[in-house]
Amino acid sequence: MTTRNIYLNGPIPCIALSLWRIVQRDYGITDEDTSKANLTPALDFFYILVLCQGALYLIWSGIHALSVRLVTSFCTKYKLPKKWGAATIIDYLFDTRARCWRDPASIYGRTLMNYAIDLLGSDSWDDNLSGVRMLDVFIRHGTEVRWMLLPSRSKVQKLIDILGWRSITGGNTEIRELAARIVAELAQDIHLAQFPGAIQCVSSLLQVETTLTSRTTKQGPPPSKQPIPKRHMIRQLRMTEQAQLKIRNMFRNTSTMQQEQVDESSRRDEGRGVGDSCNQLILQGLKILEGLASDHHNCRDICSTPSLLSMIKAPVYSRNLIQDIKISDWADVVNGSFKVLYRLIQVQGKTGRHLRREISTNNQAVSNMESILDQGSEAGEELMMRAMEILTELALDLSINLSRKTREKLVKKQLQIFLSEEGEEPSLADGGDEPAAMSNALRVTAGRTLASLSTNSETNPAFIMNGHNNDVVNRLTKMIDAKNNIRYRAIAAEILENLCAHSSLDKEYVKEALLPKVLTEIVSSKRDEQPESKYCAPPANNERDHKNSPMGNDEENPKSSAQGDEVEMDNISTHGNGREIEDFSSSEQDQENDEQTATKALQEVLLSLTLVIYDKLISADDFDDVVQKKAPGHGTFAAKLKTIVNENCESTADCLSIVKLCGQIALSMMRRNQYTSHFKDQGFVESLSESSKVLSSIESCMLFAEKYFERKKIVRPLISDIEKEARKSLIS
Question: Which of 571, 576, 454, 471 has its CA nearest to residue 513?
Answer without folding.
Answer: 471
